[in-house]
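Can you please make up a protein's amino acid sequence together with its fold in C-alpha cell form to help me picture the idea?
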Amino acid sequence: MSQARSRKVVDLSHTIREGLITYPGLPSPVISPHLTRAAATKIYAPGTTFAMDLITMIGNTGTYLDSPFHRYSDGADLAGLKLETLVELETEVFNLSASTTRGIEPSQLVGRELSGKAILLHTGWDKYFGEVSYAKGAPFLSKAGADFLISSGVVLVGIDSLNIDDTESGGERPAHTLLLGAGIHVVEHLTNLGQLPDTGASFTAAPPKVEGFGTFPVRAFATFDEN
C-alpha cells in the first residue's frame, strides 16, 4: 500500500515589527494606532470594537520583492507584475551554505533544468538577520551567475542574504541590473530555505498591487509534498 502524502507549507519570510532593522542605514518600521479599541467603544455598538493601525516603512523591509521598476524608471512596477510570475512557481533550491566563497558562480548552479522556475539561493546567512554581522561578508550572486540564470530562462531569483549583489564592492549592482533588466523578479532576505527540498517545491511571493512602487514586503512561502 502506498504511503499517504501530505502537503507541507514553509514560511520563508521574516517577521516585520516596529524597530526592525532589515538593511543597515534604512529606516525601521513605525507602527501607531489610527483607532484604538478604547476609542472604538464610542463609535460602535456595545461589545463591538476594532483596531485600525498605521505603519510607516520603506519598501525594503523584512522579506521583500524587487520589481523591474526598482532599478528602471520604465520597468514594470508592483501593479504591473503578472501573478503567474509570482505564485506557485516550480522551484529549484541550491544549498550553498557550505561554500567557502562569497560570490555565487555559474559552476554552483549547473546540472538542473531551470527554465520557467524560481531559483532560491540558500546561503544560510539568514541566521544573522537582525544582527550587526548580517551586513558584513554576506554571500551574493556574481555577475556571471546572474548572466547564467538569465540565459537559463528563470522567472525569479531569491536569496536568504543581505542583498543579491555585493554591497561591499562599491556602487555597482550587476545582479539587480541584469536580472531586473531581463524582467526577472528578485526576492531578498528570505529565511528557512534549509527546510525545503532541492527540487519539487512551489514558491509564492506576491506583493500588494501598488502603482509607481518598485519594492514591497511579501509573505513568501513554499509548499511541497512529503511522505
Observations:
- DSSP finds three helices and 13 strands in the chain.
- Residues 9-13+59-226 form a domain with the Glucose Oxidase; domain 1 fold (CATH 3.50.30.50).
- The first helix runs from residue 37 to 40.
- The CA atoms of residues 72 and 181 lie 8 Å apart.
